[in-house]
Each structure stands twice: as C-alpha cells, then as structure tokens.
Amino acid sequence: MRSRGWPLVTGLLVAAILFPLYWAVVASFTPESRLFAAPSLVPRALVLDHYRALFGGRDFWTPIRNSLIVAGATTAVSVFLGAVCAYALARLRFRGRAPMLAFVLAVSMFPQISIVSPLYLLLRELRLLNTYAGLVLPYLTFAMPLTIWLLVGFFRQLPPDLEEAGQMDGAGRLRTLWEIILPLSGPGLATTAILTFLYSWNEFLFALSFTLGPERYTVPVAITLFRGQYQVPWGQILAAAVVATVPVAAIVLVAQRRITAGLTSGAVKG
Amino acid sequence: MASITLNQVSKTYPNGQVAARDLTLEIADGELLVLLGPSGSGKSTVLRLIAGLETPTSGKILIDGRDVTHVPPQHRDLAMVFQSYALYPHKSVRENLAFGLRVRRVDAARVDERVRATAAALGIEALLDRKPAQLSGGQRQRVALGRAIVREPKAFLLDEPLSNLDPILRVGTRAELALLHRRLAATMVYVTHDQEEAMTLGTRVAVMRDGIVEQVAPALEVFRRPANVFVAGFVGSPAMNLWPCTCHRSGDGLRVVSPALSIEPEGVDVAVPDGGHIRVGVRPHDIDLVPSGEGDGVGRVEVVELLGPATVIHLRVDGLPHEFVRVVVPADARIEVDDRASFRVRRDRLHMFDGMTGQRLAEHPT
C-alpha cells in the first residue's frame, strides 16, 4: 500500500509544481488572440511573436544585462566578503561572537518596505540613484546575512584538523582560508552563490524604487512595467518570464555539478 | 632542534573542564618524550599547548628558552602529525609535502629537492602525484609524516600517529619511527594511550591522568618502579595485581597480610608501622604456579587467555571477591578453566604503595 501510494503522491506534487511553468512556456508561444479564446493543455499553433516583440520592439536585452550585472556583482561581493566573515564567525574564538551572529540575522529581518525610504534618501545623497552600485549595495543588506549564515554552517562542518595542519605548516589564518578552506568549500560556496543570485535576480522592491529609467531597469521591474494603460500584453509577459528563468536555471544546473559530496574525502581517516 | 619547557602550565576550558593542572615538563633537545595516559587524561591538550593550538590559562611554554606562550602556531616552527593525518584532500601528495615550504617562501628548486628527498626516505616517491583519497591508510600515514619531516622543524609533535593503522602496520611503522628519531636526532613529543608504543619508543615516558603528570621517567623505570598505584595499574600488560594489605610487624620482620594471602617481603622494608594499611602490587609475571600446599594461596581458574608466547590465567581467590588474581604462565602450561591452582608470589618483586595516598613507599634494603 505504502509503496504503491507514494509514487502517485509524488507524481501529483511534481505535476502541481510543474504545471504553472508548463502553462507559462506554452502560453508564451501561443498567439495573443488565442490566449483567452480556447485554452487547451496541448498547444495547437506555436508562434514566436511574443519573443520577437520582446527583443525587437522592447529591447528586453537591457533589463537582462542590468539584472545580470547587479545580481552577478551582488553574488560575487557577498560570497567573497561573506566567506571571510563566516570563517571568522565559525572558527575564531572572540568575545561577542554569538550576539554578532544574531545581529547579522536580525539585520536581514527588517521588512524591506520599512527601509526603502531611508535607503532612497541615503542613495540620493550619495548620488547612487539609478546606478548599479545603488542596487548592489542595498542588495548586500539581505545577501550578506544569507551568505554568512549558510557559510558559517558549512565551515563548521569541515574538520578543524585541516586548518590546524595549515597553521602548523606555517600558514596564517587568511592563507589557510584561501588555500585550504575555500578550495574544500566548493559545494557550500556554490549553494550560497546560487541562492544569493536567485534572490538578487528576483528582487523587485528595491529595483523599482532605486531605478529611474528603462536604462537601469532590472528584469522584474521591466516586466511589471510592460502593462500599458489599456491592455496587459500577457504573451510578452510570459515570454519575458521564460527568458528570465532560463539563465537562472542554467546557472543552477551548471553549479549543481559542483555540489557533489565527498570533496573532503581522504582528508581525515576513512 | 630544540628543547621544550612547560612551566606550571594549566589549561581550563571555557566549559570548566580542566585538561592540564600545574604541569611542569622539560623535554631535552633530541629527546623522544612519550605522553602516555588513558583517553581524557589531557595528553593531547599538552601537545596542543606546545603546538600553540591552545593557549594555557596560566603558566609558560618555552622553546629553546624563548617564551612562546602567546606565539601563534605558525610562528613556532614545530611540525605536527595528526591522529586523523589531516592531509589536504584537494592537493596532491607532492603539494601536501611542499605546502609548508611554500608558505615559508623557500625557493622552488629547493622545495622540489626537499620533497624528493623526503619522499625517497619514506618510500612514497611513486605516490607524489596522487590525491590523499587514492592512498591506503598506511600510505596516508607516511605522507602525514613526510609533511612534518620535509620542513626540518624545531621539533615534532605526534598525536597518536599509529592508532589508525592495522596492528601489523602499526608495529612496522613504530620501528621506523624509532629509526627516524635516531636518524634525525629530533626532539619529539609523542602522544599515545598504547603503553607498548610508549615503552618501545620513548626515551622517557610521562604518564598522565586527569591533567596531571603522575610520573616522568625512562620507560623501564616507569615499568620497574611505578611512582604510584595509578601508574602501576596502567603500565604493563596484563595489568599489575594490586591488593589492599595490612602490615604486621614482629621484631624486625615485616609481613603483609590480606584476606587472600600473607607474605614476608624479601630484601626491602618500608617505613610503615604495625597495623598500617598499604597496597601491594605484583606483576602477573612475578607470580608462579606451584604444586598445591606450597603456595601463598589457591584459586579457581576462571579465564585462560592464550597470548601465544605466554598464557594469562585469571584466578578467583577466596577473600578477593571483586577481582581476579592475574598470573602469567608459560604457553605450554597445562591448565584449564575450573582447575584449582596454587600460586606463589616472588618475594623480591613486590611493589608497595601507601594505602591512603597511593604513592610508592620509600624502600630501604634490609
């Protein structure tokens, strides 16, 4: 009973999760006129109209480029700085370590909406509105706590013997981190990078508030602003959604290969 | 090479656990000192204190007379072999060996030469391009040793380096370590809970319990004249028999009496008054089985352990309800479980300890 029931449940769950994605992909290839006329599970006519409009008429490349730059920079900076912070918090013994970790977590718990206005004023003073830095810096406020927490957990799992061996070999803390810890942390760094990238790629509120024109819009902002006064171009919106999902899915698939267990095998006995 | 001094070193962990109490140890240049003790005795902590991986709560650590108490490990120029080996899994054997030299900015040609020489000395040249995961336990152990040797450090710290090897390999590697120590004339501190390792390797042995050094002495001395009841019971296999006894004095003579037996020590006397309580220790090798009627006591054989070269029998003796009397007999002795055996203690091989403190009683010849 159990063994026959579970595959069915699993199948239903997977179908429930995949269906909206499937529907979006199918709809993005369906002519606008048919979208609401005769919905069917199996598409009858596939057209590239929406994609053509997206890249021809609207210049969707610009928001994609913006999003890649902002999310990429956020990921790079937060993983790099986060790794150093996390290593200190995971391994060094110093007063106030636990409160500091709690504080880092608390920072990430501010409701975004509550800090939009002060951040806006701050960025205006710094003349960073409508710049990439004006997005990357605010993004770090939620990206850094995430990376720090994930990496602290990861670093704590590494055998401390390895770092001690590094120290006995004469390497200082930073050198040990760079030459021994980080090369072994591939899976942790990859996981962290993916999550940070996802968050930054999908972030909407800051991007909407701190960009002023289409030349700096990120993908979510651009898609939202597709809707005109009298009509909503559903086909293009769905096409854009598909396009926005592809790089993320690609990155996850590529990075997933790095997330393989057993990287540390052979370090210690066993 | 260097001498290492621990001066009244104590270490209390933040959770209140005391791992070292007021320890004073002198390790001479070129000496191999073994720290021997049961698990939790603080021997690994002492090693980590010397390494600099732990900072003492109080006291001083000196290397070659220089106070290094607050010098971080990377500036102490010591090498450590970890129980887990702790090889860098992402680096090849060659890189594992070279890392310590590269960190010290030794030039590439010299690094290469040192790595080759070390690998040759340890017979791991063929493994230089492998990753640790591709090595057997014994090979990993050699690489870990190589990583320590290649740097020519001031001293070697070894934390149970053989405990992960199978018994045959362990004995072989033990002999090689002894050779290595002689060849390098290196100062070594070696932590183990295996007394056989301690006896065979150590120039001197420090027996530890609960963060205290119970005795520091040449290996044979620890075995022949244990300083207290703990050392007596811990060192030597099978373990020494220890019996609570009362001293009876008549005239000049001393007689030690327990419910199980009553004997007169030969050749030595101790300053204990009539009626004083002591503990008498006899090694299982110093008890003989004798024809019935001639012994100090009789027991029923409950366990027979065939070791090969000799046999250990455990006797249940009236008056000693909670412990066995252990006796080593020749391997060809015909003895079986449930036999009754008379045993006789060699009078000149007694160890006598204070009944209260457990310290060895000063002996004076009679």
Outline the structure in words:
The complex is a heterodimer of chains A (270) and B (366). Chain A has a domain at 59-225: MetI-like fold (Orthogonal Bundle), CATH 1.10.3720. Helix content of chain A is 72%, strand content 0%. Chain A has helices at residues 2-28, 32-35, 49-57, 61-91, 97-107, 112-125, 133-157, 160-168, 173-184, 186-202, 205-210, 219-224, 234-256. The model of chain A is unreliable at 261-266 (pLDDT under 50). With 366 residues, chain B is of the alpha+beta class. Helices cover 23% and strands 35% of the residues of chain B. In chain B, the strands form 5 sheets. Chain B has a 6-stranded mixed β-sheet, with helices on both faces. In chain B, helix 3 packs across helix 4. At the A-B interface, helix 8 and helix 9 of A face strand 6, helix 2 and helix 4 of B.
Show the helix and strand layout.
The complex is a heterodimer of chains A (270) and B (366).
Chain A: H1 2-28, H2 32-35, H3 49-57, H4 61-91, H5 97-107, H6 112-125, H7 133-157, H8 160-168, H9 173-184, H10 186-202, H11 205-210, H12 219-224, H13 234-256
Helix pairs in contact in A: 1-13, 3-13, 4-7, 4-10, 5-7, 7-10, 8-9, 10-13
Chain B: E1 4-12, E2 18-27, E3 32-36, H1 43-51, E4 58-63, E5 66-67, E6 78-81, H2 93-103, H3 108-122, H4 137-149, E7 155-159, H5 167-184, E8 187-192, H6 195-201, E9 204-209, E10 212-218, H7 219-224, H8 229-234, E11 241-250, E12 253-257, E13 262-263, E14 268-270, E15 277-282, E16 287-290, E17 297-306, E18 310-317, E19 325-330, E20 340-345, E21 351-354, E22 363-365
Parallel strand pairs in B: 3-8, 3-9, 6-7, 7-8
Antiparallel strand pairs in B: 1-2, 1-4, 4-5, 9-10, 11-12, 11-15, 12-13, 14-22, 15-21, 16-20, 17-18, 17-20, 18-19
